[in-house]
C-alpha cells in the first residue's frame, strides 16, 4: 500500500510541476530533457551494484528498455501537441483511458490475475469516472478539433504502459528496477538533447537556473513514478497483495483523484458538477477495484 501511495504521489507531482512551469514561464523541451537526465542519474545511483558486474549492453531487457525510452519522450511531445491542437479534454481522456491496455495484458499474462465480475465493474467505473472527472465543456464548438492526435495518444500510451507491464512481469526484478529505469530515461534524454541541438532557443534556455531547477524536480518525480510503479507490481506479485490489473487501475484512478483535489484546493481550478460526480465515482471505483 505504501508503494501504491508513493506511485500515485510521484505521478501526481509530475502534473503539478508542469502546472507550475506554466506560471514560471519555462520552456517545456529543456525541462523535459533535464528531467530525463536527473532521472537517469538517480537510476544509476540507486541501481544494485551487483548488476554492474554484468555488462548491461548484453542484458536481455536492454532492447525493450530502449523501446520504452523512445516511446516515453514521443508521448511527451504528442501530449503537448495534442493539448494545443485538439484541446485538453480529448487529450486527457485519451491518455487516461489507455489504462485498459496494461490491465488487459496483466490479466492475460499473470497466472494469479483473474477477471471477476466485481473487478470488471470496477474497470468500467474507473473509465467512466475518468471521463467525467476530466470533462470540460467546449464553448467554441465550431472549432474543428484534430482528433487523430488523441487517438494516437490512446494507443501510444496504452502500448507504452503495456510494454512497462510486460518488462516488469518477464524481466525486471527489484534488483534491476533502478537500472532498468535509468536505461529507459537515458534513452529519452539522448533523444531530447538531440532535438535541442536543432532548436537554438531551447539551447539557450537549457542552462538557465530556473530551467535546471524545475527540470530536476520533474526528474525526481518522474523517476519515482516509474520506480515505485514497478516496485509496487513486483511487491504485489511476490506477496499476493492485489492483482496487478487491480493495482494498475487503482494507481491511475488515484492519480486522477489526487491531481483533481490539488487542482481544486491548491491551484483554485473550477470544476463543473459533472467533474464532481466523476471524483465521487473515482472513489467508488478505487474501492471496487481493490475487492477480489
TrEMBL record:
Transmembrane regions listed in the UniProt entry: 6-21, 28-46, 58-80, 92-109, 115-135, 147-166, 178-198, 210-233, 245-266, 273-290
Entry protein name: EamA-like transporter family protein
Record bears the keyword Transmembrane helix: yes
Keyword Membrane attached: yes
Top-level division of the source organism's lineage: Bacteria
Record keywords: Membrane, Transmembrane, Transmembrane helix
Amino acid at each position: 500500500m505504501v508503494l501504491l501511495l508513493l506511485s500515485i504521489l510521484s505521478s501526481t507531482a509530475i502534473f503539478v510541476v508542469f502546472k507550475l512551469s506554466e506560471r514560471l514561464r519555462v520552456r517545456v523541451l529543456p525541462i523535459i530533457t533535464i528531467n530525463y537526465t536527473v532521472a537517469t542519474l538517480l537510476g544509476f545511483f540507486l541501481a544494485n551494484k551487483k548488476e554492474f558486474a554484468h555488462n548491461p549492453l548484453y542484458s536481455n531487457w536492454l532492447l525493450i528498455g530502449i523501446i520504452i525510452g523512445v516511446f516515453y519522450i514521443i508521448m511527451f511531445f504528442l501530449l503537448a501537441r495534442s493539448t494545443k491542437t485538439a484541446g485538453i479534454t480529448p487529450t486527457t481522456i485519451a491518455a487516461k483511458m489507455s489504462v485498459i491496455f496494461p490491465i488487459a495484458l496483466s490479466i492475460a499474462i499473470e497466472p494469479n490475475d483473474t477477471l471477476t465480475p466485481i473487478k470488471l465493474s470496477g474497470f468500467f467505473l474507473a473509465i467512466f469516472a475518468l471521463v467525467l472527472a476530466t470533462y470540460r465543456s467546449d464553448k467554441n464548438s465550431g472549432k474543428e478539433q484534430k482528433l487523430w492526435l488523441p487517438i494516437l495518444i490512446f494507443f501510444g500510451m496504452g502500448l507504452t504502459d503495456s510494454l512497462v507491464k510486460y518488462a516488469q512481469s518477464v524481466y525486471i526484478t527489484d534488483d534491476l528496477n533502478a537500472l532498468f529505469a535509468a536505461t529507459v530515461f537515458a534513452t529519452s534524454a539522448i533523444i531530447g538533447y538531440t532535438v535541442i541541438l536543432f532548436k537554438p532557443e531551447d539551447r539557450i534556455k537549457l542552462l538557465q537556473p530556473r530551467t535546471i531547477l524545475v527540470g530536476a524536480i520533474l526528474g525526481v518525480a518522474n523517476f519515482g513514478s516509474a520506480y515505485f510503479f514497478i516496485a509496487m507490481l513486483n511487491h504485489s506479485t511476490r506477496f499476493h497483495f492485489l492483482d496487478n490489473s487491480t493495482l494498475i487501475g487503482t494507481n491511475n484512478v488515484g492519480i486522477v483523484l489526487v491531481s483533481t483535489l490539488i487542482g481544486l484546493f491548491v491551484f483554485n481550478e473550477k470544476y463543473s458538477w459533472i467533474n464532481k460526480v466523476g471524483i465521487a465515482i473515482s472513489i467508488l471505483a478505487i474501492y471496487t477495484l481493490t475487492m477480489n
